[in-house]
């Protein structure tokens, strides 16, 4: 059927067929898959998971609001009840030490009345501990003083905050170690709210403190799954309540993430994503915070994704089989052409392909046949050329002089000169032999710094023998710097400039210093010669920049015919941007050249 369709369709290029097949079998399924994924997953999963988390927080928040409202109710009752306030204001002015027996009895009755009232107020709702503490230290409680002495509240660090509280304002005290002896074993932490009692002149005459155990708050978290975390935090994200008592008092660990302006309710920690949600508790600045593993939060929605993925997989398999069938039909001529190429690779240059298609594969087959014809012709031409080349090479070899013969002759001359006692001339011949060997040897592109120092030492020795006045040459190189490798003949052109131009072939001093500092390699060449004018130095520095471009022009003065700019170019090509070269000079004060290879680290 496919062959009949091919006959009816006009011939198309191979590229057209591949593109058309790719669109049918890959692009369309990919677009459908992407659409389904985006539609059913990702944002919808995240929004649903966040909605579920907020719903749980809202339910827990309503429970906590009820607890805190009960605490405020108890404080409001004490603050608003006129009879209790009359008793409290009266007793705030009485000194227990000067009270008479009749007044003591009346005071006892009033104490019992206040204590009974606050005890009745706390019967409804969660159990709470109410403390009324007057300025003179007199106190009323719904718990025994043996359980806790209320006068100790004066020493609490948060107590001073109450002086700035007016009216219905309150100070909420986060989780603190439990002070009540009867609760300390079973409930290690407590949460309190405190208000001031003021007279008509706004002067404080007492305080009311309502306290509950932290485990009452913790009950809101008990039904949560094992990995989900819900906690109560204050405005500074200090943990006030948590299923794990060990975390109470710690800072919420992901403060930086949630304060990021681009935060999207996803926290990444320990290579796992967590869903973050929070819920405001009343108007006290506290929050309920939930941190839930993202996989757990989207578990139900993820099952939908798995079904969609299964549909995608089946679709992909169908499209893949279709693609495989179509490509097999299209690429069959290519397989034949590949077999022909393997036959040619084995050495048979007489085989030819017989693909008759009118597309690019047919053209390739025809070109392949023409190429084989051309290869056969070139083999014949190359064979003839190689025969002529061998004859030419033989003629050249016969005319060559072995460089080692020259070195052996120089060594023989040096030995004869030494026998006659002319050690200075022998040393000169030895230095010349070393320099000639290094110049002729083309294999040594990179040499150790120790060998480079040896080259310039021989060079200075030869120059001193030529000049009337000798140049003093000092070397100060660290052991590690000796092991560094650089292009050969880097120091020689700089030393040559110092002798010829800097010292003007007169007596003077040249020093070479090299060392490693934090893996960076530094070379410093300095002379005490005539130096350069400011304009000459500026012109030289312009030539020693990458913006100036590399030049093939060489300095024709000196032994090596390699100028200082050529040194800069060769080092740049070897070390790239890590290399830098600086020249410092003043007239009459000499010249300093600093070469550095900054590797970093």
From TrEMBL:
One of its GO terms (cellular component) is plasma membrane. SMART domains: HAMP. Keywords: Cell membrane, Kinase, Membrane, Phosphoprotein, Transferase, Transmembrane, Transmembrane helix. It is a multi-pass membrane protein. It is found in: Cell membrane. It holds the Pfam family HAMP. The keyword Aminoacyl-tRNA synthetase does not apply. Signal peptide: none annotated. The keyword Transferase applies. GO terms for molecular function: phosphorelay sensor kinase activity. Residues 328-380 form the HAMP domain. The chain crosses the membrane at residues 18-40, 308-327. Its main location: membrane. This is HAMP domain-containing protein. It comes from Metabacillus litoralis.
């Amino acid at each position: 059927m496919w062959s009949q369709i091919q006959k009816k369709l006009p011939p198309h290029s191979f590229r057209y067929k591949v593109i058309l097949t790719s669109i049918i079998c890959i692009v369309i399924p990919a677009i459908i898959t992407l659409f389904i994924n985006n539609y059913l997953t990702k944002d919808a999963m995240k929004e649903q998971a966040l909605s579920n988390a907020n719903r749980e927080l809202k339910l827990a928040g309503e429970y906590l609001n009820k607890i805190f409202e009960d605490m405020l109710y108890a404080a409001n009752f004490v603050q608003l009840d006129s009879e209790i306030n009359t008793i409290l204001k009266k007793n705030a002015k009485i000194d227990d030490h000067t009270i008479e027996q009749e007044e003591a009895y009346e005071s006892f009755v009033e104490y019992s009345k206040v204590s009974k009232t606050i005890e009745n107020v706390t019967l409804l709702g969660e159990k709470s501990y109410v403390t009324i503490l007057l300025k003179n230290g007199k106190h009323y409680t719904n718990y025994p003083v043996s359980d806790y002495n209320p006068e100790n509240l004066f020493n609490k660090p948060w107590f001073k905050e109450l002086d700035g509280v007016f009216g219905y304002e309150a100070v909420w005290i986060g989780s603190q170690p439990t002070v009540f002896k009867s609760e300390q074993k079973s409930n290690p932490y407590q949460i309190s709210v405190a208000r001031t009692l003021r007279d008509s002149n706004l002067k404080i005459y007492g305080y009311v403190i309502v306290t509950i155990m932290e485990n009452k708050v913790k009950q809101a978290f008990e039904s949560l799954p094992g990995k989900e975390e819900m906690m109560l935090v204050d405005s500074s994200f200090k943990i006030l309540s948590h299923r794990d008592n060990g975390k109470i008092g710690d800072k919420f660990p992901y403060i930086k993430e949630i304060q990021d302006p681009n935060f999207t309710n996803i926290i990444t920690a320990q290579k796992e994503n967590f869903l973050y949600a929070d819920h405001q508790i009343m108007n006290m600045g506290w929050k309920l915070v939930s941190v839930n593993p993202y996989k757990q939060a989207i578990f139900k929605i993820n099952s939908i994704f798995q079904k969609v993925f299964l549909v995608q997989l089946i679709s992909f398999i169908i499209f893949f089989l279709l693609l495989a069938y179509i490509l097999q039909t299209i690429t069959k001529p290519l397989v034949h052409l590949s077999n022909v190429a393997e036959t040619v690779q084995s050495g048979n240059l007489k085989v030819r392909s017989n693909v008759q298609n009118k597309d690019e594969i047919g053209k390739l087959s025809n070109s392949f046949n023409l190429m084989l014809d051309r290869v056969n012709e070139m083999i014949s031409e190359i064979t003839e050329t190689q025969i002529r080349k061998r004859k030419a090479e033989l003629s050249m070899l016969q005319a060559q002089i072995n460089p080692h013969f020259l070195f052996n002759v120089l060594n023989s001359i040096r030995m004869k000169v030494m026998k006659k006692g002319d050690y200075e001339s022998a040393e000169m011949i030895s230095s010349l032999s070393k320099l000639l060997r290094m110049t002729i040897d083309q294999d040594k592109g990179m040499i150790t710094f120790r060998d480079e120092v040896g080259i310039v030492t021989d060079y200075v020795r030869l120059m001193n023998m030529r000049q009337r006045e000798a140049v003093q040459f000092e070397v100060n190189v660290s052991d590690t710097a000796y092991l560094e490798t650089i292009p050969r003949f880097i120091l020689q052109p700089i030393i040559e400039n110092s002798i010829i131009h800097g010292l003007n072939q007169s007596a003077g001093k040249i020093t070479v210093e090299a060392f490693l500092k934090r893996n960076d390699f530094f070379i410093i060449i300095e002379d005490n010669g005539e130096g350069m004018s400011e304009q000459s130095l500026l012109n030289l520095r312009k030539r020693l920049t990458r913006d100036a471009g590399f030049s093939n022009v060489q300095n024709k003065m000196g032994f090596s015919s390699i100028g200082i700019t050529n040194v800069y170019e060769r080092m740049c090509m070897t070390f790239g941007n890590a290399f830098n070269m600086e020249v410092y000079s003043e007239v009459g004060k000499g010249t300093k050249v600093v070469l550095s290879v900054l590797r970093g680290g």
